[in-house]
TrEMBL record:
It comes from Pontiella desulfatans. Its cofactor is Mg(2+). Gene3D superfamilies: 6.10.250.2860, GTPase HflX, N-terminal domain (3.40.50.11060), P-loop containing nucleotide triphosphate hydrolases (3.40.50.300). Mg(2+) binds at residues 218, 238. GO terms for cellular component: cytoplasm. The keyword Nuclease does not apply. Residues 205-371 form the Hflx-type G domain. This is GTPase HflX.
Length: 432
């Protein structure tokens, strides 16, 4: 497993952050991701002792930043008693090993830091499975680095040492674990697919909340549904997806799911590991993209979310942009400016509830094409259908005459197909 941010005596970790600016790269972008790396470190429970921004022509194969700069940073580490170094980019196994030898302290990269936070925040069985898969997939190519104390064992015919044997045994064991985890997650995906089919049969609108981490997604879901999901001003405060029922002003129900937040430089294998969760995004009828309008790099965050959505096949889904945190003056001004760039958008404060009614109206407008209005005359002997209509349709009018119920209902296309034998109209109206 990747190393976690905790010491044996439970003391707080002090970390040094290192980023690299390559020739032709914009320095402000690297500084922005370094700010995010600092937030990640703090979310993991560490204290940032300092930062180094290294400018160089290209990445050095051996030490990533070159031996001279590594020695300079090593002196700083010893003077300031830093317990760990975190790089803003992913390191190869060899680079991590070489840097650790120079610094004489633990060296992590951005992915290891994210994995540590995920491991802390995952609560459900599904979340833990996804985190464990990502950890093992990250660890697999790095096994050799863990067995450097056995390097004296030379291989060769008749001379294969226990170090090589143990390495191969661990590699096979990890590969078996990865296969087992993938099978378990495939069962999760199958179960989620069945749940979505059930929801669609009953006419539920499926809405997924997406957005950059710490944009206010969980706070917004709490505001809309009256739920009490954990929220905190930190990156990846919630990891496990949460689904809640929300009723629109026209009394139409929908199911809204809060998904894992996105960040810049989100590792590809993390996206792959969380496919079971991210499928909620792909299968949704509508995406609600929550944006922290008060953030200084709000445009960059929007681009990062779009990049991940494009990667998982969700960018073409209908999307409502929600510019959050207008209770902040800077956020209010930015939200007004940004909202003009998007056809479907609304400015709100999930924290205070400001303009939430306008968001409800926009949600109803975005989902209006999902319903069909029908006039029905249903025999009372069709008790099963009447029960389904009571649970899953909006009944606008109802009147009972003899052994029949005359109804005006608004239903999903799937339910409309079941009701058409009892329709009193030749063609249903597509309204709402």
């Amino acid at each position: 497993m990747p190393e976690l941010l905790e010491t044996q005596n439970n003391e707080t970790e002090t970390v040094l952050l290192i980023g690299v600016v390559l020739r032709g790269e914009e320095e402000w972008k690297v500084k922005d991701t370094m700010d995010e790396l600092a937030q990640l470190a703090e979310s993991a429970g560490a204290v940032v002792a300092g930062r180094f921004l290294v400018r160089q022509q290209k990445i050095k194969a051996g030490h990533y930043i070159g031996t001279g700069k590594a020695e300079e940073i090593s002196d700083w580490i010893k003077e300031n008693r830093v317990s760990m170094v975190v790089f803003d980019d992913d390191l190869t196994p060899a680079q991590g090993r070489n840097l650790q030898n120079v610094f004489e302290t633990r060296v992590l990269d951005r992915t290891q830091l994210i994995l540590d936070i995920f491991a802390q925040r995952a609560q459900t069985k599904e979340g833990c499975l996804q985190v464990e898969l990502a950890q093992h997939q990250y660890l697999l190519p790095r096994l050799r680095n863990m067995w450097t104390h056995l390097e004296r064992q030379k291989g060769g015919i008749g001379l294969r040492g226990p170090g090589e044997t143990q390495l191969e045994m661990d590699r096979r064991r990890l590969q078996d674990l990865v296969r087992t985890l993938k099978r378990d997650l495939e069962l999760v995906r199958t179960r989620r697919t069945e749940q979505r089919r059930g929801r669609r049969r009953h006419g539920w609108a499926l809405v997924s909340i997406v957005g950059y981490t710490n944009a206010g997604k969980s706070t917004l879901l709490n505001r809309l549904s009256g739920a009490d999901i954990y929220t905190e001003n930190q990156l990846f405060a919630t990891l496990d997806p949460t689904t809640r029922q929300v009723e629109l002003p026209n009394h139409e129900p929908m199911l809204m799911t809060d998904t894992v937040g996105f960040i810049q430089k989100l590792p590809h294998h993390l996206v792959d590991s969380f496919k079971a969760t991210l499928e909620e995004v792909v299968e949704a009828d509508l995406l609600v993209h929550v944006i922290d309008a008060s953030h200084p790099q709000v445009e960059t965050q929007i681009e990062a979310v779009h990049k991940v959505l494009d990667e998982i096949g969700g960018l073409e889904k209908p999307m409502l942009y929600v510019f959050n945190k207008i209770d902040d003056e800077k956020g209010r001004n930015a939200a007004k400016r940004l909202a003009r760039q998007f056809q479907k958008s609304v400015c709100v404060s999930a924290q205070t509830g400001e303009n939430i009614d306008a968001l409800f109206d926009e949600l109803a407008d975005c989902l209006k094409g999902r319903k069909v209005e029908l006039k029905l005359s249903v025999p009372l002997s069709e008790g099963k259908l009447l029960s389904v209509l009571q649970k899953n349709a909006s009944i606008l009018e109802q009147e009972y005459e003899g052994d029949r119920a005359d109804l005006l209902v608004r239903v999903s296309p799937q339910l409309a197909a079941q009701c058409r034998p009892f329709s009193t109209e030749e063609e249903p109206e597509n309204e709402w």
